Structure to design on (369 residues):
């Protein structure tokens, strides 16, 4: 950039550039290196280009977990690359790693048998591994996000009773909630004093993070609800779902987000053939849900997420044989655009992300045991 351009303008321009360009620019001059290395620049940098991270288990070809990054712009889905996973492709013969959430360009993976979370910056190809403590007789629910005030990545671990356990027998749950903050490099109790009720069961791998708040789908004595955890205040709260969703089965309901709005979708428990209903929580207002659209019942679909344009991404069961096909759905014309990806029934995960410099100052493959 020209010396005639004010440094403040240069900073704003660089704040939107891809990570690869920024790493190259560090060697051009001392002022740029100092800017790019500063904690304030790292915390606020975000490339304008959005990508979709697609993870799925391909048991029909290589019989392994695969991960693809697709550029989400007018060229979609032509610009896509296969990624080298930062975790084992299988934890054991029965399970594989799953994505907890994606936030600020970071992706958090977890596997039950591995008992560890891996925070991954795709653009920097850096990882941080965190051991997650378990407790015999209890399940765990993991959440991940970044504090809005300090830009500190955090993992929250909730111990809860198994849904088949009589909750009244669990008078107390040891270390029910723990929070790991990367800045401290250790687990601790949350700042907030309120904890989830012990009767709440958290179905595995069904959560999203929006603007520093993590949301789990939860089941309280056969009534579905949403439990949230604010990564800044570290407080929990409960969100009541519309009757059409609260009375459905946990395997017929899922969550995503559109912009900064929580999206919950599910089949009516008593009328599954009405189709997949998609609801959104407007303006972050608890208990204020509006129905967006319904996906045709003959598609047997799962809503996986949304493109930047707002188009829903779904996984449709194959007509013959097992597995699902990855597609973009137009809810008004009901047009389906298949993307040539086929995966195992319940293995598809889709998370949008932008390139960031988070973890830049961290040593690669750092481990917190």
């Amino acid at each position: 950039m020209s010396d005639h351009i004010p440094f403040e303008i240069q900073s704003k321009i660089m704040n939107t550039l891809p990570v690869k360009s920024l790493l190259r620019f560090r060697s051009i001059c001392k002022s740029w290196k100092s800017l790019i290395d500063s904690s304030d620049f790292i915390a606020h940098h975000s490339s304008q280009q959005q990508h979709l991270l697609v993870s799925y288990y391909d048991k029909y070809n290589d019989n392994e977990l695969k991960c693809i990054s697709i550029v989400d712009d007018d060229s979609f889905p032509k610009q896509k690359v296969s990624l080298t996973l930062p975790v084992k492709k299988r934890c054991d013969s029965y399970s594989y790693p799953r994505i907890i959430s994606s936030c600020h360009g970071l992706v958090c993976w977890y596997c039950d048998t591995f008992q560890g979370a891996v925070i991954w910056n795709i653009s920097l190809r850096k990882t941080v591994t965190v051991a997650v403590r378990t407790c015999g007789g209890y399940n765990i629910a993991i959440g991940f996000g970044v504090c809005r005030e300090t830009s500190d990545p955090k993992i929250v671990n909730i111990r809860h009773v198994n849904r088949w356990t009589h909750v009244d027998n669990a008078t107390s749950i040891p270390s029910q909630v723990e929070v790991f903050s990367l800045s401290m490099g250790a687990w601790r109790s949350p700042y907030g004093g309120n904890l989830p009720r012990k009767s709440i069961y958290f179905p595995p791998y069904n959560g999203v993070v929006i603007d520093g708040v993590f949301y789990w789908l939860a089941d309280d004595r056969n009534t579905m609800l949403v439990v949230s955890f604010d990564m800044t205040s570290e407080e929990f709260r409960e969100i009541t779902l519309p009757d059409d969703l609260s009375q459905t089965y946990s395997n017929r309901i899922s969550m995503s987000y559109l912009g900064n709005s929580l999206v919950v979708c599910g089949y009516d428990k008593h009328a599954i053939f009405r189709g997949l209903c998609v609801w959104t929580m407007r303006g972050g207002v608890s208990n204020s849900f509006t129905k967006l659209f319904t996906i045709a019942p003959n598609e047997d679909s799962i809503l996986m997420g949304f493109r930047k344009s707002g188009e829903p991404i779904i996984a449709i069961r194959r007509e013959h044989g097992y597995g699902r096909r990855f597609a973009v759905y137009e809810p008004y014309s009901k047009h389906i655009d298949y993307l040539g990806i086929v995966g195992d029934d319940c293995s598809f995960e889709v998370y949008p992300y932008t390139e960031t410099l988070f973890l830049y100052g961290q040593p690669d493959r750092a481990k917190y045991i």
Summary: The mean pLDDT is 87. The first strand starts at residue 50 and ends at 58.
